[in-house]
Queue: 3 jobs
Job 1
Amino acid sequence: MHTHEETPLSLMQEHGVKPTANRILILKALLEAGRPLSLTEIETALESVDKSIISRALSAFRKARLLHVLADGGDSVRYEVCHCAAEDADTDRHVHFHCTRCGRTYCLEEIPIPAVSLPEGYDADHVNFVVEGICPHCS
């Protein structure tokens, strides 16, 4: 887990993102969820924030590597906060579990993504590891 207390403001500063009131709200919602959220879940959690503001903030967060974007096994993506500001060594990558019954995606932070040996000439910049099945709440 993460050793020091991280706030939306400190994370934005680490990643070089200009803080605004709405960006702080959006990042706070992602941090408090404790799991990757879809755009719809973010919009539902923040009904007072305009959808276009949320989209622009997520875009800015992605550019600054403040978010991990992962395919959830369905036809949408989910967003989670990246706690590692270093561009070359992301120590924050872990396995995700997508429940096919309730549709939630969970972080399995204690399970690192297994190393993958790529053939010569291939250079990965993102790894997405999602296990699908039924979560404990649904089984």
Note: The two ends are 27 Å apart (CA to CA).
Job 2
Amino acid sequence: MPRRVEDIVRTDRRTVRDIPVEESSASGKRRSDKPAPQKEEKGREIHIHKLDVTVPIHTGPKPSISKRRTGTSKKKGVWWVSIIAAVVLIVAGAGYVASTSFARAKFTIVPVVIPVTADTTIVATGTTTAGYLSYKAVPYSESFKKTIPAKSGPKVSTKAAGAVMIYNSYSRDPQKLVAGSRLSTDSGLVYRLGSSVVVPGYTVNSKGTIVAGSLKASVTADAAGASYNLSRGDGLVLHFPAYKGTPRYSAVSAQLSTDIAGGFIGEKKIVDQRLLASTTAELQASLTAELVARAKAGVPEGYIMYDGAYKAYFAPADLSGTSTDSAILTVKGTLYSVLFRQSDLVAKLAGSDKASSFSSYPYRAPGAESLSFTINNPKDFSPAQNNALIAHFKGDIELVGIVPTDALKAKLAGKPLSATLAVLKSYSSVIDVSKSAGELFPSWANGVPTDLDRISVVVEAK
């Protein structure tokens, strides 16, 4: 059975419980400590033994316990608030400095666009002539062969024959050339005039340019053989050996007006004419397709070659071979592609006012490659001789200013956002300022960064 402690041993010495403690009330008045009435505890009674403690007598005023604790708590609270505020300020300041140091700027630029509708005929030349659009003729040559049925025929020897255009830029006076006068290629092939001719003297146009007098004449090879066969597409120039060493040698010359053909030595092959014609046409079509593909693949940057902007020349079909029941049909062709410098063509189509509105800045011309193109003088036009081309262009194009983004970035760098408008206006010939905009990230950044890598210039594609 547990031991119960019930007796309280009394003593005459003073203990903590025997000393009354005065506390301040809410009104500030002191009151004596009166023992609170004890409630009678039901059930088991627990007695606490009083320990004897000697308390030193305090002569001064007793500090209020509640006041000491309240003051310390307030000091600690203020100290923590100060620390938190300082940390917030430091973090905010660091964030501001970082965001400003690593700020970015984005400018969305809309280029100037000028629409142009083309529906016009233009005269172009193969030479540089003031006031005229010029074209560039580029030759491509190839030969295709095919074996066809044939029979052996008689042995023959024939001379090649054709026609040339003789030009006189030597004198205003007519130049007389007698029958049999020799003309020679640079490789040494000699031909003779079929009759005497008088070539008109040159004239001078209103711009002071000499226009050579010209006359068409027939020629025949000086000897037989297929080596004298020439194609008009070869663009050869023939000179008169009699004038060599004099100013007339380069001023009186000739170019092929037709093919010089028919030269042959050997056993002539006999072929069905309908088969010969169809096979020749087939080879010419294949040859043309091949050369057109090569020409389009070879268009240099800045130039345009339109569909149909070419002219093909074919030498007479040649039959050869030693077989008694077949012959080799050879077709040789030269195709001249006609190229236009895009900037010159667009300026001609758009007019000088629109083209010059971009000032010294370049511009693009979307749609220029898709214009409809037609040669109006196909019979007279000869790119091999660089003569006049009359062509019709039709369709819609646009002139789009090319914005110099690197130079624009350099001018925008370091500027406050309010000053960027003046920079954009300095490029108003190529930038549509009213449709362009700029923004900074973050929004409180001081201005456009000085680091060009942090400046983005986006040109809206057209």
Note: Residues 1-95 form one domain.
Job 3
Amino acid sequence: MRIVIDDDLCQGHGVCESEAPEVFELGKGHLVTVLDQSPGDSQRSAVEAAVRFCPTHAIRLEED
């Protein structure tokens, strides 16, 4: 899987970081950084939760 963030939709709520802190980081200016663009299967459920609970639906997964 590969994580894609729509920067136009992201408002920096930080839900993604709460769900998957090893994959997402909320930085200064409420900008989200993806720490691992292609996380392994061990992170799949956390990343899927981040996608599901993102209030602006700014995150999507693309399967390899």
Note: Residues 2-62 form a domain with the Alpha-Beta Plaits fold (CATH 3.30.70.20).
